[in-house]
Write a structure and sequence with these properties.
Blueprint (H helix, E strand, L loop, with lengths): L2 H24 L7 H17 L4 E4 L5 H8 L4 E5 L2 H10 L4 E4 L12 E7 L10 H11 E12 L5 E8 L2 E9 L2 H10 L3 E8 L9 E7 L2
Parallel strand pairs: 1-2, 1-4, 2-3, 4-5
Antiparallel strand pairs: 5-9, 6-7, 8-9
Helix pairs in contact: 1-4
Length: about 220
């Protein structure tokens, strides 16, 4: 792991440890936009058709999406960089499995996952580290496995730094990307595009959402 990788992982981990409880309260279980839930359900159906291999929910946070996948009949587990988030998820969903880890270097064997879900978690990965992340996706997915990503999107790529959230001091970077930018990096990693979806803002959301579904050949 390079010094640059370690720095952004440390600041992201520390920031989410600081805001974990407030974040979980702000985004409770079941607070789904109907389209988002439909796309997650479609992903779950695709994974189920391919077999019984598990799905990794990367950046699982409080565990709500991992639990939804479980409700949909998918054997899922959560991985999160923040120990505080993992603790919350284990307390809320004691029947499910959550562990601390980084999508930059997954502690998983090659070709063992039926699917990968990364909802609003790659947004904290700097551009120059994304190829390594997507290489990990390719490495750990079984042939025929799917990955679904969701992220805020803007017309042009950009970066937002937040020094405060929920009244706490943090040091957190957000990277806004276009669907084409993300799709290009995923295909370079050896994954093939299945679908892209863009939806406009809803409620208090500030930026449109993009979803990219890919498959390992």
């Amino acid at each position: 792991m390079t010094d640059a990788t370690e720095r952004f992982l440390q600041t992201t981990r520390s920031s989410y440890d600081t805001i974990a409880k407030d974040y979980a309260a702000q985004f409770p279980a079941g607070d789904w936009h109907p389209l988002d839930r439909t796309l997650i359900s479609t992903f779950a159906e695709l994974v189920g058709r391919a077999g019984t291999a598990p799905v990794a929910d990367l950046g699982s946070g409080p565990g709500h999406v991992t639990a939804l996948l479980d409700e949909l009949g998918v054997p899922a587990f959560g991985v999160d960089l923040s120990p505080a988030m993992v603790t919350l998820a284990r307390e809320t969903y004691p029947r499910l499995r959550f562990h601390i880890g980084s999508m930059t270097a997954l502690d998983l064997p090659d070709a063992t996952l039926g699917g990968i879900l990364a909802l609003y978690s790659t947004i904290h990965v700097p551009d120059d580290h994304l190829p390594a992340v997507f290489a990990e996706f390719h490495r750990t997915l079984l042939p025929g496995g799917h990955a679904l990503l969701a992220f805020q999107t803007t017309p042009e790529p950009g970066r937002l730094h937040l020094p405060e959230r929920f009244g706490h001091t943090i040091d957190l970077d957000y990277y806004w990307r276009t669907p084409d930018q993300v799709t290009g990096l995923l295909t370079e990693a050896g994954l093939e595009l299945v679908a892209t979806v863009r939806r406009e803002t809803s409620g208090e959301e500030k930026w449109p959402r993009a979803f990219v579904l890919v498959r390992k050949p």
